[in-house]
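Methods, example record. To illustrate the input and output format used throughout this study, we show the complete record for Tripeptidyl-peptidase 1. The sequence lines were provided to the predictor; the line carrying structure tokens was produced by it.
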Amino acid sequence: IGPRACLLGLLALLVAGQCSYSPEPDQQLTLPPGWVSLGRADPEEELSLTFALKQQNVDRLSELVQAVSDPDSPRYGKHLTLEDVAELVRPSQLTLRTVQKWLSAAGAQNCRSVTTRDFLACWLSVRQAELLLSGAEFHRYVGGPAETHAVRSLRPYRLPKALASHVDFVGGLHRFPPTSTLRQRPEPQVPGTTGLHLGVTPSVIRKRYNLTAQDVGSGATNNSQACAQFLEQYFHASDLAEFMRLFGGNFVHQAAVARVVGPQGRGRAGLEASLDVEYLMSAGANISTWVYSSPGRHESQEPFLQWLLLLSNESALPQVHTVSYGDDEDSLSGAYIQRVNVEFMKAAARGLTLLFASGDSGAGCWSVSGRHQFRPSFPASSPYVTTVGGTSFQNPFRITSEVVDYISGGGFSNVFPRPSYQEEAVASYLNSSPHLPPSSYFNASGRAYPDVAALSDGYWVVSNHVPIPWVSGTSASTPVFGGLLSLINEHRILRGHPPLGFLNPRLYKQRGAGLFDVTRGCHESCLNEEVEGQGFCSGPGWDPVTGWGTPNFPALLKTLIDP
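The corresponding predicted structure is encoded as:
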């Protein structure tokens, strides 16, 4: 670094104390369970940090999402291109110049932008990053089932006040990689079960949701689908081929992924990664499939954020994305949550369908100043994604009607107000449900989720060449629902219609048409005397446990095939 840059850095540091602000004062700064510090990071070690730049015209973007997603709007289905979105939200010239000057003065190297210009990913040494982000102190950490390594700061950072109107937050400091909540449950013990199904496989799903052998992709369109997951996990092509050999015999399918975005590691296959790709490709059978694989390529990157950058930098993307990732809303800063929500708006404006798992902790639970409350999950609580809950068969060995899977995540956001599209459905549930928890446990005016559900209990998965039974979690229901939406997109594309895009306004307007209503069962919550482990209960119509219900494919196709 030249003497001038050093002097600037020193001046910036002196000024920073008096004229600085904290972009994420409410970000949780504790080490997640199971992680340990390996000590201070080497000052010369290179970090990759992501700078989220202030966007323009976010209100206009919100209006456009409404216009292209509401079936009663004249603009319905007239989705924007990535270039249209970039034109709208691109930061001002002043923002771009100010941030670039600040970063180059600090010695930031080879900063990469995206098509929408609203993110910058830059390489800096630990020493430079700690000078630039006053208060940050980088340590090396290791944790999680895969012994993942991460470089993070558990101390808050501050930025010069002059940047307050130009930077939303800096990624790569605080948030740790997520861990999977997928679980293998013990086999249910029910007497006299000879000749019945022994767990959920593609043929069980296809039978329950009324798909025929003809309900597969035509191979004649540019329709595609994707799953993304952010654990240090990979799927193995040989596991997918074996899964299809064992379970894909009665429908036309593809036995290989069309495209892997991100590093595809050589290590052991992960159960979550195997599940996602196997069930997306067997529900959305014979449709070209992409896998976004742990795109946090460096220990200082946040994998979920890296995925959002990829979406903002690629003009031709799969129409349906299924994501099994979530964090407690309260563990994330307001700046981060609001900005990620805008990223979902950008996807919705482009006609992408984003499906997120609702989580595997029921209503959740945490203690606020000594009082228990339910604990919503994000991105499940975003008003711009379609959130998928979970169900079980009433009889675990028969293809029967479905009941609530007690782990199915659901509830009410403490951050996002209830969107207009669900006003009527949620008000109806709150007014008519006979089993509402005490009102102090949830924010009745918040965005309520999930929107839909599918089976989440008792799946067979092939991982590391071994068929594994009784795998459960909304990580299973999400790719199943996504695959079925891809089949519906296929029909729409063949008829010359645009893809479904952001589904919720249409889904709520049609009041759950084409879905099996799940009306029995409650999910789990706080284990205290007041609620005794019970969260919300399902009932007729929409509810915050299974949404509008699970897919009845021919009926759902009929309601969604035409504009």
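Annotations derived from this record:
The two ends are 59 Å apart (CA to CA).
The chain has a mean pLDDT of 92.
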